[in-house]
Fold this sequence. Notes:
The complex is a heterodimer.
Chain A: E1 4-12, E2 18-27, E3 32-36, H1 43-50, E4 58-63, E5 66-67, H2 74-80, E6 81-84, H3 97-107, H4 112-125, H5 141-153, E7 159-163, H6 171-188, E8 191-195, H7 199-203, E9 207-212, E10 215-220, H8 222-227, H9 229-234, H10 241-251, H11 263-275
Parallel strand pairs in A: 3-8, 3-9, 6-7, 7-8
Antiparallel strand pairs in A: 1-2, 1-4, 4-5, 9-10
Helix pairs in contact in A: 3-4, 3-5, 4-5, 5-6
Chain B: E1 3-12, E2 21-31, E3 36-40, H1 47-53, E4 66-69, E5 72-73, H2 81-87, E6 88-91, H3 104-115, H4 121-134, H5 139-142, H6 152-164, E7 170-174, H7 182-197, E8 202-206, H8 210-216, E9 219-224, E10 227-232, H9 234-238, H10 241-246, H11 253-263, H12 274-285
Parallel strand pairs in B: 3-8, 3-9, 6-7, 7-8
Antiparallel strand pairs in B: 1-2, 1-4, 4-5, 9-10
Helix pairs in contact in B: 3-4, 3-6, 4-6
Amino acid sequence: MPLLQAENLTFSYDKKHNVIKNVSLSVEKGEYIAVIGRNGSGKSTLAKLFNGLVKPDSGKLTVDGFDGNDKNSLFEIRKRVGVVFQNPDNQLVASIVEDDVAFGPENLGVPREEIGKRIDFALKAVGMEKFRHSSPTRLSGGQKQRIAIAGVLALMPEILVLDESTAMLDPQGRKEVLDVVEKLNKEKNVTVITITHYMDEVLNADKVFVLSDGEVVLTGTPEEIFKEKDRLKSLGLELPLAAVVADRLKEKGVALPDGILTNEGLAEALCALKAKI
Amino acid sequence: MRVESKDLTFIYGEGSKNLSVTALDKVSLTVEEGEFFGIIGQTGSGKTTFVQHLNGLIKVGKDKGSVIVGEYNLSDKKCDFKSLRAKVGMVFQYPEYQLFAETVKDDVAFGLKNFAPNMPEGEREKLVREAVETVGLNYDRIKEKSPFELSGGQKRRVAIAGVIVTKPEVLVLDEPAAGLDPVGKREFIELLHKLHGAFVKTIILVSHDMNLVSENCTRAAIFSHGKIHSVGTPKEIFSRYDELVELGLDLPVTASLTRALKENGIEIDSDLTVDGFIESAAKIFAGEK
């Protein structure tokens, strides 16, 4: 059974316009999932449905065997699905880093000694153990976002949902956060669902869901998804810039192979081309 | 209007032994009228502190250098900041978070009401309509709507309409495309070029998006630790591969490709725009099997 399964989820905020329409998808334990789609396509609403922040009007969400429609399961689902949002400043609640990380487990009634261990674990996982007694206000954006992730990790979630969590960070901060997330996925087998506009973040995913107007319209590996160029274009999405450059070079008669998606791949293919003559 | 700073210095918490931070350290920079100027640098390098000086949000301190924008000397106590602010528009990060009024019409009109309180209502509405239409929205359809009912992309456009309603000659934007989807971003950049061809003479764009800077800017400056590391055309700036990486900055895709090919003995000379790169690369590689 998949770790997270959505069956025909439908949701509206105003009971008039469905922002999520009949969405069915499944996520296996340990997978790295990317969700892409235009602004307003329903991505963030989907994230909120995944951990029960909003309740579907119809359909069913199951997480680790717990039925989202059963009120008593909601708590269990939230323990398993942690969401990190876009703006780190909106997610930190305490004036000392360790108190902030402890906030979630304290609310769940985790015993004191155990909380100490969880703070150790979570801060180490995001590489912020040195800042345990610092004030979050004096940290950089990337550091703050890593504390927000630590706060979610302290709940020992099975699934980490990142809702454009790197959008407000500078390149360095983005890299810090992505490295941490990748490590958690690879080493701790944490399932990751990342919602993003950055195509290079999509390239690392095992599976991609493309959302348009509340529906999942494409599912596949990044390679499969980015093959559907015209489809993506009609959905208002774009290929990674390296892929665009590769395509345009091909149009100009450069004999590049299909399926180039990264800078490295393109540079390599161009060098190989030169070596042949 | 020309924008010029000379030896501009700013210290947060000046006087405090432990907490003072020098955000700007003798920054001298000139942006000529007509430029589409980029400012890049790591978080904390002083970019935002610098641009906040350009319309007097942060005042130039005593003995802290000077800022001159067109005919305005901002280091002069008698500087008319009100009229300056109508001419230097400032768009912050996530400008849609600053929408507040009950209707789109009121929100866009707010600045105008402050800058020209005696303007007749009819004239004011004409300018508001023009600003909303310039950013690509249908005025009659949204004027009475709450800004909070709009989509993210529309909100951002309304916020920008509220800045350009005074027809500023200088437009300063701090990371304006963050959070937009790829198409939204492209449309947004088209809007900037459209404004730049109209009443906006000079654009100063602060961004972490190196592709955005290399594609659109006439020149750019790299800030580092409160100082200007270098100034030049995108080609000049982004050819300093190793220095950029050392400063913790990304390279535009074109520069990173040029660098990778150079390491393999293939020189591609271009202006580092995507079009320029493709043209130069096609000359070398086309027809080779």
